[in-house]
Amino acid sequence: MGRLYVRGAEGVVAPRQVLAAVWATRLHGGSFPVTVPAPMHSGSPGSHGKPVQPCGPTNLPDEPAAPQLGLPALALGALGVVYGDIGTSPLYAIRECFHGYGLAISEANVLGVLSLVVWSLILAICIKYLTIIMRADNEGEGGILALLALQRRSGGSRWQRIAPLLALVGAGLLYGDGAITPAISILGAIEGLEVVTPALRQAVVPITVVLLVGLFSVQRYGTGRIGSVFGWVMLAWFLAIGVAGTVATLRQPSVLAAVNPMYAIHFFVEHGTTAFFLLGSVVLVVTGGEALYTDMGHFGARPIRLAWYTIVMPALVLNYFGQGVVLLEAGATVGNPFYALAPGVWLYPMLVLATLAAIIASQALISGAYSLTRSAIQLGFLPRLRIVHTSGEAEGQIYIPEINWMLLLLCLGLVFSFGSSSRLAAAYGIAVTGTMTLTSILFFGLARHVWRWSLPAALSLTGGFLVIDVAFFSANLTKFAQGGWVPLVFGAMLVVVMTTWRQGRELLSRYFVAGTMPTGAFLADVRAHPPVRVPGTAVFMTSNPDGIPPVLLHHVKHNKMLHEQVVLLSIATEQVPTVRFGRNFEVEEMGEGFWRVTARYGFMQTPNVPRLLAVCLGEGLAVDLDDTSYFLGRETLLTGGPSRMARWRKHLFAYLSRNSRPATQFFGLPANRVVELGAQIEI
Questions:
Q1: Would you say residue 20 has pLDDT above 80?
Q2: Domain carrying residue 396
């Protein structure tokens, strides 16, 4: 008779679970509490009409929660991770506003530009991201893929077909941002050597290259060891730039008048087209805005807001005001207004701090690219890649070699091609403003289709966002030929890859469903014609949680036998960042030695099958991991099939499929216990 068992995290498991604890310790180096939860879907019928029953007692306490950091500690951490990008904008933003536009350095122009800077920070960061966008969280997680996951909860609509494409374009631009940020930040910091002596100008690119190679080479060790000091370094950075700006501002406090938005309005009235084009450089002051939303899940909204209003924004505004004073005092003779704020011996510690801050800003974007990639893989938009967990405690600390070296090559190509942060700023602006615009559009879809706002309410709010975003984006499009094409081309290539992979996997899914045999018919055949049964457990990985998968049918057909215990394991990705381990699976006994395990993971998690099976140990399902074989299907794709997929996409999908990481590695399977059964499939 069939029984359905549920495993989770509440209550100590019966004696058989002692073995699970042993295995968890062997797999992960340390103690691992094995517990069970209250039953999932309690009272629903099992595979043979029996009600769902929990295994083991359920009246014991839940596993202890991780220690919670206080608000100040979280805010300090946010300084080191969230604000690295926007915190290094003073290195080049004001300089770019007065470079290449033929703008005279006068009091009216300086106050007009400073007013644009201040109100860009207020409108884009304070109001849009910190007040509105960060309310759109997916169980605490933010970012453009979290917005996409929220869109999928809105049911069927035309918006459901548009939202994924918009999110994929935004993801592609974020990858471009991840490549440009290390290059422009470190270039901008090292360009301070030119202030020390012009003779060092030729050393800027080589030193930048050395730092980039070193930065990407140490990624495999993880950020855990150095992450604890990031916040303190950035705190020192913000204090330093704030003090430097304050000292200069006290010499000419009249620049504080720039907080009046009328100076920005008068600047636009006077300069017209030039002022519009200037927005392409003004946007550099808000380049880290998307990071506030993307990294929300690491620290929470309150610490991020606290860090912004108490430290980051005051330091940035004061530094920008100070640079304005330097421009008014020195005029066109000043080469780099940021480093001019630290004259004499103060230049050297500022140069060191700027370099450290640039590296930290780069690290945040690199780690973000890893997280974005894992989410895309779990959501089915990218093929499997090697994901290395660099910490046994923090789920989010991962390293993806393919993404790491791809970003390094892109960074080096950008440094050699552009040679300076000024030239690279054109490419940077389009990547940032494009992502900001798409975030606003996706937020409109969320407000309208998920939160059920009225059309006027959704349009009035997101329309205001889009006025700012589109203005910034349009101004940057004028720099298309100067380098703005780089993130657009890179984003387009990634969208093609992700949509092709998604479409190809849907074709394969339909093929596998068509080749699936009903469970009842198969088990009836096993009872009527019992095959040879051999000792041990066989685990068959299948994407379809119903029926008997083709890989098992091929195994029986060719090997003419079955193991004493057969486990059909399906892993599904939920539209949430994480599903708590222990609460994420069901175990169902189907009879004749067959079991079905259905596991659910969030799109920010990486499944580990042996660990999962270790916790699934219970009455009847006695898995000895030393005597378990894993059976996987390996498809050879033929591109001459009848599907309506374009032929070039078929070839691209076949190439991606051949070069994706094997399921053995992705799911943490022991390589010496895996059996792969091949099949040719026409698509």
A1: no
A2: 71-482
Q: What is the mean pLDDT of residues 179-194?
A: 86
How many other CB atoms are found less than 10 A from the CB of residue 345? 7
Asked if residues 144 and 470 have their Cβ atoms less than 8 Å apart, the reply is: no
- Whether residue 504 lies inside any domain: the answer is no
In contact, 381 and 175? CB cutoff 8 Å: no
Q: Which of 87-96, 114-123, 384-393, 670-679 tops mean pLDDT? A: 114-123
Tell me the DSSP string of 384-431. Answer: ----EE--SS-TT-EE-HHHHHHHHHHHHHHHHHH-SHHHHHHHHHHH
Q: What is the pLDDT of residues 613-653, one digit of tens each?
A: 888 776 567 888 888 999 998 878 888 878 888 889 999 99
User: Strands, E, within 17-137: which ranges?
Assistant: 53-54
Contacts of 160 by beta carbon, 8 Å cutoff, 6+ apart: 151, 152, 154
Q: Is 66 left (phi over 0), alpha (psi -120 to 50) or beta?
A: beta
pLDDT for position 513: 82
* Residue 230 to residue 236: CA distance in whole angstroms: 10
When pLDDT is cut at 50, 70 and 90, the band that residue 201 belongs to is confident
Q: What is the mean pLDDT of the chain?
A: 81
pLDDT tens readout for residues 498-525: 999 999 988 888 888 888 889 999 999 9
Q: Helix/strand/coil (H, E, C) string of 310-379? A: HHHHHHHHHHHHHHHHHHHHHHHHCCCCCHHHCCHHHHHHHHHHHHHHHHHHHHHHHHHHHHHHHHHHHC
User: Which residue in the block uniquely carries the two structure tokens 């007692």?
Assistant: 57
Predicted TM-score (pTM) above 0.90: no
Distance CA(567)–CA(593), nearest Å, equals 9
Q: What percent of the chain has pLDDT over 90?
A: 35
Q: How confident is the model at residue 79 (pLDDT cuts 50, 70, 90)?
A: confident
Strands 53-54 and 594-601: unpaired
The answer on 190 and 276 residing in a single domain is yes
Taking alpha carbons only, the member of 178, 394, 458, 411 closest to residue 290 is 178
Residue 5 has pLDDT above 80, yes or no: no
Domain presence at residue 501: no
328-335, long-range: CB < 8 A, 24+ apart: 328/105, 328/107, 328/110, 328/252, 328/255, 329/251, 329/252, 331/105, 332/105, 335/194, 335/195
| Domain shared by 380 and 440, yes or no | yes
Residue 258: which of 118, 387, 135 has the closest Cα?
118
Q: Are residues 224 and 118 in the same domain?
A: yes
Q: What is the mean pLDDT of residues 108-113?
A: 94
Claim to verify: residue 57 and residue 77 sit in the same structural domain: no
Burial 577-588 (b: 16+ CB within 10 A, else e): bbbebbbbbbbb
CA–CA dist 49, 39 (Å, integer) = 16
The residues, any chain, with a CB within 8 Å of residue 539's CB and separated by 6 or more, are: 567, 569, 609, 613, 628, 629, 630, 631
